[in-house]
Structures are given as structure tokens and as C-alpha cells.
Design brief:
Blueprint (H helix, E strand, L loop, with lengths): L1 H27 L21 H7 L18 E8 L7 E8 L2 H14 L2 E6 L1 H4 L21 E14 L10 E9 L4 E8 L1
Antiparallel strand pairs: 1-2, 2-6, 3-4, 4-5, 5-6
Length: about 190
């Protein structure tokens, strides 16, 4: 008689434990919906958090081109930060609409420093060009494809491959800016994977 009583109880106990486990995993690793405020695990898009996160990145060469704080004259501010998770890489991107004279000044400064320059596209396009390097996706853009329109010039300020001879860009870091002079937009970006 005991085996008949315990068999259904064990099944119910296992089901309860599985449900609790699934709920716990959903809480620890939420899957964003299309209407979710946050676009992924650990992703930050609130511009109010920019200065704090920028400060945490330090003052290395890869972040020196980012402003320390969001300029007061900036409008249409968009921010995207995805910290490294397990083997995933870090993405840090800030998009600002600035007065034309500031955009012109930054374009002059950054185009003189650029080691690569691309018109429109995204990292998947750029890395496959002759002598191309990975860049970034347009995380702060308006299209679901996350590709820069041809009104943007993507200026690579630094590119360091960490891969091996089989695939030099298996891991690496690239950083730079994308500038749209016609709309006075500057996108500062950093990718580390």
C-alpha cells in the first residue's frame, strides 16, 4: 500500500520542484518581450545611468572619446550598455544630437584620428570588407536591423584583435564614433568581446 501512496506523491513533488525551478530561472534570467523596457539580460538603456557607468569603465584609450557626462545641450539622447555576461561581450553606445558646430568640431577631430572609415552598414558588413575590422551594431538606432544608414560615417579609432591565426577577430576590442553630419548626430561606441 505504501508504494501506491508514495508514487503519486513523488510525481506531484517533482512537478512542484520543476515549476519552482522554472520560475526561479525566469526570475534570474528574464527573457525580454517586444514591449519590455529593457532589451536583454543586464542591458541598460536609461541615459540617467550613463555617467556612473562611463566612470566605471575608467580612462583607458577605448573610452577616452566618450564624454564624461551627457552634455547639457544634447537632445534626443539614447544610451545602450550591455555588460559582459559569461562569454558574451560588452557593448557601450551613446547617441546624441548636438549643435552643428560641435558635431563639425568632433568630426574634424575624430576623422583625423580614424584608422578605418566606413559609410553606413554594421559590424557584419565592415569586418568582411578588404582590410575590414569589426565595428558595432546601431543599438541606439531606429531600425530593427541595427545597421547604420548611409548618412553615417563610422570612424574606427581603435581595433585590437585578441584571436589567433585561425580567426584573428574571434575576440577583440574596437571603438570609435559614427557621425551623421546632416542630422547633427554623434554615436560613440565601444565593443569588447
Amino acid at each position: 500500500m505504501k508504494t501506491r501512496f508514495w508514487a503519486p506523491t513523488k510525481v506531484i513533488l517533482i512537478i512542484v520542484l520543476v515549476v519552482i525551478g522554472v520560475l526561479a530561472l525566469k526570475r534570474l534570467f528574464p527573457v525580454p518581450s517586444a514591449s519590455s523596457a529593457e532589451p536583454g539580460i543586464g542591458v541598460v538603456t536609461d541615459p540617467a545611468k550613463y555617467a556612473t557607468l562611463r566612470a566605471q569603465l575608467g580612462d583607458g584609450a577605448a573610452v577616452q572619446h566618450f564624454p564624461l557626462t551627457i552634455p547639457t545641450e544634447a537632445i534626443n539622447v539614447r544610451f545602450y550598455y550591455r555588460p559582459s555576461l559569461f562569454q558574451g561581450g560588452t557593448s557601450f553606445q551613446l547617441r546624441l544630437t548636438l549643435p552643428t558646430d560641435q558635431v563639425d568640431k568632433q568630426y574634424s577631430e575624430f576623422s583625423a584620428q580614424a584608422i578605418h572609415s566606413y559609410i553606413g552598414g554594421d559590424t557584419n558588413v565592415h569586418v568582411n570588407l578588404s582590410d575590414g575590422v569589426p565595428t558595432t551594431l546601431f543599438f541606439t538606432g531606429d531600425n530593427a536591423q541595427q545597421s547604420f544608414p548611409t548618412t553615417y560615417e563610422i570612424l574606427v579609432l581603435g581595433a585590437m584583435p585578441y584571436g589567433d591565426s585561425n580567426f584573428i577577430w574571434n575576440h577583440g576590442m574596437t571603438y570609435g564614433v559614427a557621425i551623421n553630419n546632416s542630422e547633427s548626430i554623434v554615436v560613440y561606441w565601444l565593443e569588447d568581446w
